[in-house]
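Hi all, long-time lurker, first post. I run a small reading group and we've been trying to get comfortable going from sequence to structure in the token notation. Rather than ask abstract questions, I figured I'd post a concrete chain and ask someone more experienced to write out its structure so we can walk through it together at our next meeting. Sequence below, copied exactly:
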Amino acid sequence: MLGNHEAMLLAAIESEMNEARWLRNGGDQTLRSFRAARAVDIPDKYQAWLRSLPKFYDDGRRFLVHAGVHPDRPLDQQDEHDLLWIREPFLSDGRDYGRLIVHGHTPIRGGLPDQRPNRMNLDTGAVFGRPLTAAIFTDENTAPERFLTAGPN
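-- Answer (accepted) --
Happy to help. Here is the structure in token form:
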């Protein structure tokens, strides 16, 4: 799934003006991992892979997205900026979207996902050294069957 950091990297590849912003948001670590001097130096196969990432996945029961959705727009009319960046008014909105919105982007404390009737935030703050969390979903239920965590507790 395409997230805001991947989108910043793609923007940095397209324009040097965008590279400074990406570097301030973790891009320097990505460059080191690729042993690259600049974003455009990242191998083409990885750039192509990033460009192929979907912005969301809708299985009819759940709408999986990086950041969330804008509450005032139908799911099929969301804009890319909100899918990648939104926090409010999405996080405080309690309406039923017709699907469980599964998202991250906003780290939560406590090591457990934030599960609400209309949305589930899986971002348990791995970027801050907290556990990385994943959910396993089945076709039988909207809610996850179980959660998996890895990393520090």
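A couple of things your group might point at:
The chain has four helices and seven strands.
The chain has a mean pLDDT of 95.
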